[in-house]
Amino acid sequence: MKRIINRIAVLGSGVMGSRIACHFANIGCEVLLLDIIPKDVNDVEKAKGLTLETKFVRNRIANDALQFALKSNPSPIYKKEFATRINIGNFEDDLSKITQCDWVIEVVVENLDIKKKVFENIEKYRKPGTLITSNTSGIPIHLMTEGRSEDFKAHFCGTHFFNPPRYLRLLEIIPTKETKQDVVDFLMHYGEQYLGKTTVLCKDTPAFIANRVGVYSLMSVLHAVEKMELTVEEVDKLTGPVLGRAKSATFRTGDVVGLDTLVMVAKGLVQNLPNDEAKDQFVLPGYLNKMIENKWFGDKTGQGFYKKVKNAEGKSEILALDLKTLEYKPSQKVKFATLELTKSISDLKERVKVLVQGKDKAGEFYRITFAGLFQYVSNRIPEISDELYKIDDALKAGFGWDLGPFEYWDAIGVKEAVALMEQMGNKPAAWVYEFLKGNTTFYKIENGARKFYDIPSKSYKIIPGTEEFILLDTIRDTKTIWKNSGVTITDIGDGIINAEFHTKMNTIGGEVLQGINKAVEIAEKDYRGLVISNEGTNFSAGANVGMIYMMAVDQDWDELHAAVKLFQNTTMRLRYSSIPVVVAPHGLALGGGCEICLHADKVVAHAETYIGLVEFGVGLIPGGGGTKEFALRLSDSLKEGDVELNTFRDKFLTIGQARVSTSAYEAFDLGILRKGIDKVVMSRNRLLLEAKQECLNMADAGYTQPILRKDIRVLGNSAMGIVYAGANAMRSGNFISDHDQKISEKLGYVIAGGNLSQPTLVTEQYLLDLEREIFVALCAERKTLERIHSIINGGKVLRN
Question: pTM value?
Fold first, then answer.
């Protein structure tokens, strides 16, 4: 059966429901968001003479929840306008509207009786074949369909989104025995391709996969803290980025999520897992019990493991909880010898090997927690999953781990980790010993495909679904055609090559520029097109400002001029090559990373792309062709009758305020992505595949090499008036500093085309020369160097 999802009904508008509604609106669906009718009229409504019969009042709960979600940070919506796709209502007046919906998602309170009553009412109105799913995280899915029709049961499933649904990539799919296979297949595919999720098929076991293992891991850390007498700060240092986890690590994450939520899940697991060999780990440690008694739930109550206060000078200060005394003390910086040894190791898998061998308290902590985790996940097969890759996928997508448990195990070495586990008294499941008789890793790459060890068949199989993707990690070893220290060029098939950055934060320096130029050269000679993409956390954090700083401090102006010109020449070569160039950004695409995108024939961006020209923050203007490109796009956007200075101001402010899009969709409004040319993709896994296809489409259509532009209309001194007036007003109001004012005027000078008495047609090279001249001049300013130094040494923007 072919299914098209146009309309979605979300029943329940709480934290999860309202945000699930927003994410479906993000992808273009029309959403009906319903909740209960309020019991009473509030004071504001009474003052307006409204009653419980008024539609506005009857919809208040859903409306308030949606408005709260839309105001939250980070936003659950890609663009504010997308919220108009959501219609609100209530269960009594509007439930009949689900007749028009293709999918009904229940997200009401975690109470089986209430859910069953909701499903009974749904069945009165749903048309046969409509999907019905529940977002429960704690109630067995099969219990919900008691008393429902055969058609209802056949189209019913659990769909467990993780909060916040826009940002966390996990979607667990939990069918019952009655769920039709084509429904399961559809949800797995739809979730991945259209919602941009990592979809994981789960068994109907308590907490499914991610929460079962993730909460175990978290609780085991909380118990290890008590046993080893570690501090809050020490644990967050040990379990953050050094381990491939979020910066918020363990305790800070607990404060953000809410300790009451964590405790609720942990207590549920204690009750529902009487035969779990590690059930004692889900019992709350003493200090956590005390915190719950005190209602120290974290951010929602103003204090948890951390507390923000004002000190004697009136400045904000972060206090950390002493887990022994339950008193708050100033947060302390932490150092471990083991962590110092890993500072120069960028590869997480290599770093983990060093961490578990540490001779200090840090090494002991890693050995204890990894031994327990490995034992636990080995014992969960086949209880929660028959395949080990599903456990890894769930933890990476749901908890933000860079590696899943079995991937960590591989990194340490399966045999070596088992020896460690035996020393710690955490022997793995019997199947692991059977596995070790002829194998060494749970995963391997073979013939360009990533395979996992399948326990029942005792053989390696391709991870299902990955056949559809192009994954650089799986083809890099056999398809690389050129590389240097910053770039790898890979043949991705059908006459298309890919250039991949792999510097720290994918910053752009001389080695990356060399690699991009080499990629164009190779593509023009032997291939049909070029894609620029990578599998790092971010596409690119921009130009290597450390290199710029060193040249400026040494006052090596000729070398700096040459470096900027090389960057400009590289972006222009992308624009004017004889083959199509597609850039596929994701995550951060800032400064120079944005300029690479601006000069592509087409950008295929992941929806979660945060892109912008941010050079103003370090006292500079975009110098890799970005300022020139905004002047060019300003010229192209002007139509007869336009108020030219208003359009100029908009382009100027995008750079002058260092605006960064909060999604790829917002980048169209900033003029960074081009409507009708550039494209947004929801699935991160499909990004390179889609970029390659767009490159092929252009090649197949008979790509024609563009001609250098000589017709760029700049406004000259007529535009500088608005620049001077605006900058002066902002300085007079104390909104910007003297140096900000100077940079603003220099930026306006370039976009306006310099000191021209009237609007004039100029060439791209004219604007590039102007851009480079101003960029280098600003590098000579002491305050610019102070700003760059602040970014390099502390990552902080200095407003001097």
Answer: 0.94
